[in-house]
Every structure is written in structure tokens, then in C-alpha cells.
Amino acid sequence: MLSVALAGKPNAGKSTFYTAATLADVDVGNYPFTTIDPNRGVTHVRTECPCLDREERCGDEHCHDGKRYVPVELLDVAGLVPGAHEGRGLGNQFLDALTGADVILNVVDASGGTNAEGEPVEVGEYDPVEDVEFIQEELDLWLASIVEKNWESIQRKSRSPDFDQEAALTEMLTGVGATEYDVMMVLRNMEYPDDPFSWDDADRERLARDLRAQTKPLVVIANKADIAPDDNIERLQDAADHVIPATAEGELALRRAAEKGAVDYDPGDADFDIVADLSDAQQQGLEQIRGVMDEFGGTGVQTALNYAVYDLLDHFTAYPVQNETHWTDGQGNMLPDAFLLPDGSTPKDLSYAVHSDIGDGYLHAIDARENRRISEDHELSEGDVIKIVSTAN
After folding, report:
1. What pTM does this model have?
2. For the domain bounded by 3-138+217-309, which CATH number is listed?
3. Three-state DSSP class for 286?
4. How many whole angstroms separate alpha carbon 330 and alpha carbon 307?
5. How do 67-76 and 39-48 pair as beta strands?
């Protein structure tokens, strides 16, 4: 399962975002280090279910009338403060917890209502653009410190006559969540000395920064957009490549209201309907949320998750079935499973995602939409419905 991590300074709204996205009970408070131990939960990305192309909806628990929700892991850990890579606050604990994350959502208090340490100040008093730069810097320097600590072992290994520098670096860096492919791509795109004894601090830091960009891409969540000064969102968008305005509190209010039957709302909708009798205060609060959604096309929470997985990580959703005519499994359930795969994945990749035995016994695959056999190296795409024929079926 893909892992999405929430980063940011204390009191930026990470725990509120986490609660809204997972509806899990966590401590949410207006003080630094509300989160001490990492919270791990399941949230979902949203896409169109292939059942929209059939006469009947699939009825899967993760499909809401054609809105398909695919699970991903969401990780919320302690907030970062300047100097976290040196151990300030709960920095080392936080950064180490990020090792397995595939993408990081940097939750920023766009209102400027918390200072660099996460302490409350007047709205607009602090410049949130500084949080964009410092989070990236802390992550880069954290990785650089790991490279530095392990460099002596690389140098020792280099004395061996069969030393392979790329292999040694790969072995070291896979310990912080990188894959062999990640290390290969980073080394291919940078110039570096052949001898580990010739590397200097700048070389090691460049390796760390490039590796972080490759393995831990960042999306900035401009949280508290509903109370942010007018130009803060624009300045954040100028300061970073990927910025999503959001109101985590608004999303949480809508999801809880939907649970109680007060509103008709699915995560990621651009609007909602009030379907119960509410007090004037409750209606007023919901209408304020609607005003923010009108401006930004929703609360931003689902948008951020979708953008991180489908756009930044470049994944798509594929649906394995056993019956290519009815798109069902062996029990007659339509489209019971959905898998997130990286762009370029093939039917055989999908078979391994289902189960290693299915992959090992792979024979061929059928495109259920076209009702035709497809080649093993055929690249799948969003919404594909695939029958896998395997000796393990």
C-alpha cells in the first residue's frame, strides 16, 4: 500500500487533516507537539469507478455511486521545528518515521497564525512561505546527516579490490526508503568522484538533496485557507511547485456531519446538500465552509491526496477480475478489487500486485473492456479492467 506522510511544524493542522482524512480518533490541540507517537491510518484516493460504464453500479463498499475510493496509508507524526535534523524538538523521531513514505504532504498554516516554533500568534503575523523552505531544508539535511554518518563505511569498503561504488551507495541508501532505481537515477544525473575519499561535504549534500527530491516529493497543503490573508495563498503558490489550498477543519466538519446524516457529502465533492433540520448556528457554519469550497473547488483534503498519488507519484488504478464478461470475481462481486500501480505497469505487474503466486504463474491477460487478449508488455492505464490467467488461479 502506498504511504502518504504529513509533515509540518507543530500546530499547522496535521492532526486535523489526519482525522478528517481517516476519521480516526487522535489528539487534536492548539499547542506544539500534540502528536507524540506516530499515527498510522488508512485514507483513500478518489477516482471514477469503471462501473459507470455499465448499467448497474458495482455496489462495492469503496464505491459511492461511481466514486471509487482506493486505500492508501496516511502517516501523521510529531511536528518539525527549525534544527529538527540536529535533534531539536522531536526531530529525529519524526524524520526517521518518514523513511517509508512515498510522498510527503507539507501542511502549512497559510493563515500565518503560528510562528516558526508552532506557537499561536495573531493571524497574518507570521509569513507561511518560510515554512515551505524550512521543511524541505530539514528533510534534505536529515538525509545529508545519514549519508555523512555512513560515509566512513563506504570508504572502508572502497579498499576492497572488487569495490563497486554505485552498489555500495545503493546498499546504504536503500535503508532510508530509496530503491535501487532511485539511487541509479540520482547517480546518473549527478557528477561525482570515483573515489569515496575524494568526495567532499558538498558532494554528499548534493547526493542527499537529489535523493530526497527523487524519493520524498513534496506537496504543500496551504491549510487554514478559509482564514488566510488574501495574498498568502498566492505567495505560497509562487514559492512552491505543488500547492493545494485546504481547510482541514472544514473537511472534518463535513465528514462528521455526513456520518450523522445531516449533509449529503462524499469526500472530494465540490459541494454538499443539507438534508436535516439544523440550528441557525450549524447552518451558518456549514455555509461558511461552502463559501471556501466555492472558491477552491472543495475543501482541498481529497484534492491533495489525489494530486499526491495520481499526479506527483504518477500512479493509476487497475481492476483485476476473474470473469471478463461480467467484471466479477469468483463469488460474483463486480469490481471487488482496485490496485494503484505506477505509470508504465503491465498486466504481469498487476498480477504480482494481486499475489506473488499469481505473478509467478502468469500466462496471459484479457482486457475486459475490449474482450481481447493483451500482450505481457502492454502498458495499462487508469480504469483498466483486466482478467489475469495464471496457473495459480
Report:
1. 0.91
2. 3.40.50.300
3. helix
4. 34
5. antiparallel
